[in-house]
Design a protein that fits this description.
The longest helix has 23 residues, at 2-24. The chain has two domains: 32-132, Roll (Ubiquitin-like (UB roll)); 171-389. The chain is elongated and about 80 Å long. It is mostly beta strands. The protein has helices at residues 2-24, 28-33, 63-67, 79-90, 302-307, 358-361, and strands at residues 37-39, 46-55, 58-60, 76-77, 95-109, 122-132, 171-189, 198-199, 202-218, 226-238, 245-246, 253-254, 261-275, 278-287, 320-331, 334-342, 351-356, 366-372, 375-389.
Length: 392
C-alpha cells in the first residue's frame, strides 16, 4: 500500500511539472500581446517606430515584403498610407490576405514637432498579419529582387518623390545626378547664312554633375499629389571643344567655343501624382540652370546667334524653366520616361524633350530633342542617378 501511494504521488508531481511547462510555452496570443496596446486604424496620423510582419502567427522577415512598405522609422504615417501599403503587398500575389494593425510602443514619446498632430503620444508599431498562399509544385529557387531605380528625378528634372518611391511621407531627400551629353546624332537648321542645313554626328562632350536636395512637404494620397521644394547645384564642364560652324567656302569660320566650366544653381517646386503605373510630375525652376542649353548646340552660341540668326548681342540665357515629366517602371532597373523643359526668355525660344529609352536598348542611354527657332538637334545622352538619402 505504501508503495502504491508513493507511485501515485510521483505521477501527480510529474503531471504538475508538465502542466507548468505547457503554461510557460509562448503561444501566438502571448507573443502578440507584447506588441503593445492596440490602436484603431480610423484615426491618425501616427509616428512610426517599427514595422513587423507576422505569418501564421510567427514573426517573418522577408526583404521583398519590406520593399513594398514605404514607411520608415520616425516618419509621419496616415491611414491612407497604411492602406496603400496593404494594396502593394497584395499585388505581390503571394498572400490570401493582408491585415494591418497598429500597436502603441510604451515609453517612446513622439518628437515634439509632431506632438500636436500625432494621434498617439507614443510612437507606434505597424504590424502586417499575412496569410500566405500555399506553395505548389515547383521547387525553383526564387531570383533575388532587382533593386528599384530611383524615381526622385528623370534626366535633368526632379520629381516630388524621394529615393525609390517608398518614401512618400514628408522628409528630406538628396540625390547626385550625372548627365553626359555625348553629341548630336542628327540636326537641321534653316538659317540663311548657315554653311550647312543638315548636320550629322558631331561630338558635344558636356558633363553636368548635379547635387539635388529636396524637402517633401506633402505626401501623396489617392486624391492629392506629393509636393516638394528643393535646390540644385551643378558643375558643368567639357571634355572636348564645342564643334565649329565652318563655311565650306573658305571665307567664314564661326568660333563656337564657350567657357569650358560653369557653376549653375536653381530652386524649384514640383508636384507628382501616380495615375495607374504612370507617375506624372509638373514643376518650375528659378535660377541659372537654364543656361546649360546653350552648351548643347553650336548654333546657340553668341557668335552663331549674331552671324547666322541675325540676333547680335543676344544670349541663350534663361532664369525660369517650367518642366513636366511622365515616368513608368516596366522593370525595376530600367524606367521609361519623357520630360519637357522650356527655357523662358532665351534667344531663339529653345525647349527640350528628353526620352529615357534604356528599357528598349538594355543600356543606360537617353535621347533628347533640342528645338529652337530655325532648327533642331537630336542629341545622345548618358545619365547616372545616385540616391544618397533616403536609402533604398
Amino acid at each position: 500500500m505504501a508503495r502504491l501511494i508513493s507511485v501515485l504521488l510521483a505521477a501527480t508531481a510529474l503531471g504538475g511539472f508538465c502542466s507548468s511547462v505547457k503554461a510557460q510555452s509562448p503561444s501566438t496570443s502571448t507573443a502578440q500581446a507584447h506588441l503593445g496596446a492596440p490602436l484603431a486604424l480610423d484615426r491618425g496620423p501616427w509616428i512610426l517606430g517599427e514595422i513587423l510582419f507576422f505569418s501564421a502567427g510567427q514573426p517573418a522577415n522577408n526583404p521583398t515584403w519590406r520593399e513594398r512598405v514605404r514607411g520608415s522609422r520616425g516618419s509621419l504615417y496616415t491611414r491612407a498610407d497604411i492602406f496603400a501599403d496593404t494594396e502593394n503587398l497584395m499585388s505581390l500575389g503571394q498572400f490570401e490576405s493582408v491585415n494591418p494593425a497598429l500597436y502603441e510602443i510604451p515609453s517612446t514619446p513622439v518628437p515634439s514637432e509632431f506632438s500636436s498632430i500625432s494621434a498617439s503620444t507614443n510612437q507606434v508599431r505597424l504590424v502586417f498579419h499575412v496569410t500566405e498562399k500555399p506553395v505548389t509544385g515547383s521547387t525553383v529557387t526564387a531570383r533575388p529582387a532587382t533593386p528599384p531605380s530611383a524615381i526622385s528625378g528623370v534626366i535633368f528634372t526632379p520629381t516630388a518623390y524621394r529615393g525609390a518611391g517608398r518614401y512618400t511621407t514628408p522628409g528630406l531627400g538628396l540625390d547626385f545626378n550625372g548627365v553626359y551629353v555625348i553629341g548630336r546624332l542628327y540636326g537641321k537648321n534653316s538659317f540663311e547664312n548657315a554653311p550647312r542645313k543638315t548636320n550629322y554626328i558631331d561630338r558635344v562632350g558636356v558633363w553636368l554633375l548635379t547635387a539635388d536636395g529636396k524637402m517633401q512637404l506633402q505626401s501623396e494620397s489617392w486624391l492629392r499629389p506629393a509636393v516638394s521644394v528643393g535646390a540644385q547645384g551643378s558643375f558643368l564642364f567639357r571634355d572636348s571643344p564645342q564643334p565649329k560652324v565652318d563655311d565650306p567656302n573658305p571665307s567664314v569660320t564661326v568660333n563656337a567655343s564657350q567657357k569650358k566650366t560653369k557653376l549653375l544653381s536653381n530652386a524649384y517646386a514640383v508636384g507628382s501624382k501616380k495615375f495607374g503605373p504612370v507617375r506624372a510630375s509638373i514643376g518650375f525652376m528659378q535660377g541659372q540652370q537654364g543656361d546649360m542649353v546653350a552648351q548643347f548646340s553650336e548654333f546657340l552660341t553668341p557668335d552663331a546667334l549674331g552671324f547666322f540668326a541675325g540676333r547680335r548681342g543676344q544670349r541663350v540665357r534663361s532664369r525660369s524653366v517650367p518642366f513636366a515629366s511622365l515616368l513608368l517602371l516596366p522593370k525595376p532597373a530600367y524606367p521609361l520616361a519623357v520630360e519637357f523643359m522650356k527655357f523662358n526668355g532665351a534667344a531663339l525660344n529653345p525647349y527640350m524633350i528628353n526620352f529615357k529609352i534604356g528599357y528598349f536598348l538594355k543600356l543606360n542611354f537617353d535621347v533628347a530633342l533640342l528645338k529652337f527657332d530655325g532648327g533642331y538637334d537630336v542629341i545622345g545622352l548618358l545619365q547616372f542617378r545616385y540616391n544618397h538619402f533616403p536609402r533604398r
